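Recall the central idea of this unit: under ordinary conditions, the amino acid sequence of a chain determines the structure it adopts. In this exercise we apply that idea directly, starting from the sequence alone.
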Amino acid sequence: MNYSVLMSVYAREKAEYLRMAMESIWSQTAATDDFVLVCDGPLTPALDAVISEEKASHPELRVIRLRENGGLGNALNVGIKQCRNDLIARMDSDDLSRPDRCEKQLSVFDRNP
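Accordingly, the structure predicted from this sequence is:
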């Protein structure tokens, strides 16, 4: 069962938190084939560097850049329209997921469609 990951980031987030959050997704026992990252307005050079590094290593990462910061709700509404799968794992840019998070959630959906 495929799923998308949806995350938004904005300029006040710490680059190291973003890196750790993204790495926790790449480390999932049930890998995603679609990761949508919405940049809610202009970002810092440090955040842009993390995104560039992650994009180089993970072709499933798709980056959507909004010209202005419109808030989390707006960013997620834009991002959800870009997700390729019906199931979406929502992450904040400072969240950490256990390696089996998505596997466990997918098994619930598999048992209870």
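The radius of gyration is 14 Å.
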